[in-house]
Amino acid sequence: MALLLFLVLAAVVLGIIGVAAEGLGYLLIIGIVVFVAALGLIAVRWSQRSGRRPLR
């Protein structure tokens, strides 16, 4: 969980720097890619967790 939070925080920071700094638009793109990767990781963990419910 800490890794996911770190990835989202890094994406936000890179996005802010990419928007604010002149000529560093590539940081915004990298931030978006990191954010999408974090969302994908969350989706994978969420789908794995839902499959472990015990049958009654």
Automatic annotation (TrEMBL):
The keyword Transmembrane helix applies. Keywords: Membrane, Transmembrane, Transmembrane helix. It comes from the Bacteria. The chain crosses the membrane at residues 25-46. This is DUF2207 domain-containing protein.
